[in-house]
Amino acid sequence: PFKKLKDGLLSGTSSEESKDAAGFDINENESTVSITVVGASGDLAKKKIFPALFALYYEGCLPEHFTICGYARSKMTDAELRNMVSRTLTCRIDKRENCDEKMEQFLKRCFYHSGQYDSEENFADLDKKLKQHEGGRVSNRLFYLSIPPNIFIDAVKCASLSASSGNGWTRVIVEKPFGRDSESSAALTKSLKQYLAEEQIFRIDHYLGKELVENLSVLRFSNLIFEPLWSRQYIRNVQFIFSEDFGTEGRGGYFDNYGIIRDIMQNHLLQILALFAMETPVSLDAEDIRNEKVKVLRSMRPLQLEDVVVGQYKSHTKGGVTYPAYTDDNTVPKGSLTPTFAAAALFIDNARWDGVPFLMKAGKALHTKSAEIRVQFRHVPGNLYNRNFGTDLDRATNELVIRVQPDEAIYLKINNKVPGLGMRLDRSNLNLHYAARYSKEIPDAYERLLLDAVEGERRLFIRSDELDAAWSLFTPLLKELEEKKIIPEYYPYGSRGPVGAHYLAARYNVRWG
Ligand code: NDP
Ligand code: BG6
Known about the structure:
carbohydrate metabolism; 9-stranded mixed β-sheet; Glucose-6-phosphate 1-dehydrogenase; alpha/beta; 7-stranded mixed β-sheet; 18 strands; glucose metabolism; oxidoreductase; EC 1.1.1.49; single chain; binds 6-O-phosphono-beta-D-glucopyranose; binds NADPH dihydro-nicotinamide-adenine-dinucleotide phosphate
């Protein structure tokens, strides 16, 4: 296809043809990147993908020659797409630095193409449009599948057969959910691999793009003080906690088919756990890191029903306002048993982590929005200062908290002498508070991941064997929950979740942080 286009360009001699659609002079030895957002009319595209692309442009991270194309069934002109996109763009870095001008320049590089997801013909038309913008340069193409999972394969098929690059790379970012159990995930992988090689597939888990999750490996492997403590010898338990202070508002239809275990635990929290617990990789190379993560997942026991608590939020009235129950959502079937909360104890059967409970807790419509990793250390043996803590020895142990969001921070709870003539101890924090330490704003996870995909960096994307291992841990439990129709523990909207989570933790001598 490149040859044909090149010939076409060479045979045309008018002066306009030496410029591309964005007005740049064409040099065929240069390369260009075309990013097609498939499902551009949707929620994720508006909320996250276009703003992330703009932020990358603003920071000068996109190559000189790039085109962004929205693709969806909705009828829209380029101007309408630009208008839609412009409403969600923000200049988060520094409003004074020509933000409006940059936005305008960015929007000029955004185009729209309307088509069906299962039409090779429509994708062939897209291909023609992309070629016009690429102007005969080496064309690299990134497709972001921001569409419901039931149409992933249709879109991948048509994109790969009719719109992949003829002379550069073609990559596809696939959004979750990657199936709903081991079988459906394997079927999805198999179908994707009919059209794409594994190196072309970028399975996104946006939690891996979060700043503090990226920092986990830096913390562990570039500081002498943490790694020696990172084992069953010193760590009593580790907690991965996700909570949102809103319900499934607007996404109940999607959510009911998945539930919180698939939505958050099997991917976001498990990925963080794997990074937390992995051995030192041979290098920072994507394959070396992913090899170590897979080893952790394969050393874990599949979840047992008795190690899991599930909950669902119910309506609650507070201060005269009534917050709805999960099943009040019109898109959720009445009587749905889908969990909106879950707590679980997991174990890694290897030499480093034998017997250490890894606890996960994830819930919607809770009292707060946050995501944290909490590492609780063992008691100091024969602690000289125990009497300061009375019988509550738990309070005397060190705890390392990595607050992924909001208000990113890493702090270590230590015991400290209260200044004065007496000998009284209290708990204080050694505190790295990002907002106080770093003036630059933290990039959104989607910015990092989109940039990595453009650059071909796979470290933060999920490899298919990782995905298989992750599903193997959760599939038996998910089947059992569904087959036995386990009734969730109901908790009021805005509360701390079901009390069962505390009993579960207590069984392993753990108190939630
Ligand atoms: P949407 O439901 O908004 O769908 C995106 C677009 O796909 C729609 O604008 C619509 O475009 C098209 N579409 C929707 N339903 C159908 C259908 N049944 N058949 C054919 N086309 C359809 O999805 P989101 O933007 O919310 O999410 C996109 C992907 O990202 C999903 O896989 C989702 O699970 C995932 N995701 C979303 C998150 C979010 O916050 N929204 C967070 C994490 C992941 P048109 O009609 O114009 O063709
Ligand atoms: C998505 C889930 O993957 O992550 C949503 O599908 C959830 O249910 C979202 O709300 C949370 O992401 P963040 O980045 O806002 O914590």
